[in-house]
Amino acid sequence: MRTSSRAILVTVIICLILPQSMLAVETPRFEAKVSPEMELLAGVLTQTSWMENRGPRGEGNEYFRALRDFFAPYNSHEAMMLAQEFTDSGFVYDAPVAFICHLGSLPELELRYEYSDYIVQRAKGRDRLERFRWALKDLADESNFLEFYKSWQPRFTEWLAASSMDGDKIVTWLEAFFGQQASEFHLLLAPAMFPGGGYGAIITDENEELISFQIIREKGESKAAPEFPTDKELEYLSLHEWGHSFVNPALEAHEDVVGRLQRFYNPVAKAMNRQAYSNVHTFMNEQVLRAITTLAAEELYSAAAYEHYLEFERSMSFYLTDEIIAILRDYQANRDQYPTFDDFVPVLLAKIGELKPASWLSTNYWLVLAILGPTLVATIRILALRRVRRINA
Known about the structure:
The chain has helices at residues 3-17, 20-23, 36-45, 50-54, 62-71, 78-88, 94-101, 117-123, 126-143, 145-151, 153-162, 167-178, 231-252, 255-259, 262-265, 269-274, 280-300, 303-315, 321-333, 341-353, 360-363, 365-392; strands at residues 31-33, 184-190, 197-204, 210-217. It is α/β, with parallel strands linked by helices. A four-stranded mixed sheet has the order 1-2-4-3, sandwiched between helices.
């Protein structure tokens, strides 16, 4: 037998004996990119009133200006008209980007994943979504948008390299905490969406596999290159946005129980509405998730990071964060009894129900301080001045 034949035979035998896990090439647990489909949507939205509330501060970064100018000649296209209708009807914030996450690649822009009930409800009908999809495809073809996108590809590569983080660490922590895996994690930089922060999108494929998206918006203050969070800032944002893919379905499975927690939402309803959390269900999704990410900060970073994020969540009127963290520590200490977060949710909701809702005063202390602070300072000054006068008299 010749040497080459013997080497081939040995290789075949090794492949048959060794487990596939030892032969597989390790790949990153997440994909980061600037998506042409998301940029098509962003360009369309530059021609609508979306910019009034979700535009940049000032003139915007160089890419945003180029994208807006590229689509300006098409501002009467059906895609622009439909985007304005969607905006007017409340299909805003995470809804348009989640819609895009259901679609395949340009130029076909096929429906890759069936629309979720959430997106259909937000859009007020599946037919409206399909009409918008076909209009976007037509606009991309007519404008030759992919050529514009490709012309910016070198810059996209630069921005992705600058927005680095240890994504594998975040994915590993999330899957360990929730006891559940996602088949895919995606991070999409959105250099023409504002202001800084993220949107999350949850997809379930035909095999009932979870696909988790996060869309990271540009900070909105740059006139030159787009600016995105980096390092630990981006990691913490990823904990939140990818975390929605686990928390939201877990709580939605107990929708009736969450609905009975309305008394916890009422004291902070105004503060929540300002953050686009308009009902007890979105509030509880956020409140539970923010407790989880605060707990993650302690485990992944430090006690100081934990205190920092805990105070931040309190300032945003998520007043149950401390109590829910205490409940979650019981979950972590009893994973043999609760292998997954889904298993623990009934206990979590029951224990939340035993808590005491906060008063309006305690959940709006920043507002109270802003109103009473100047008066309090003035009163102290007057009393001090009177005391000085009595002493000098």
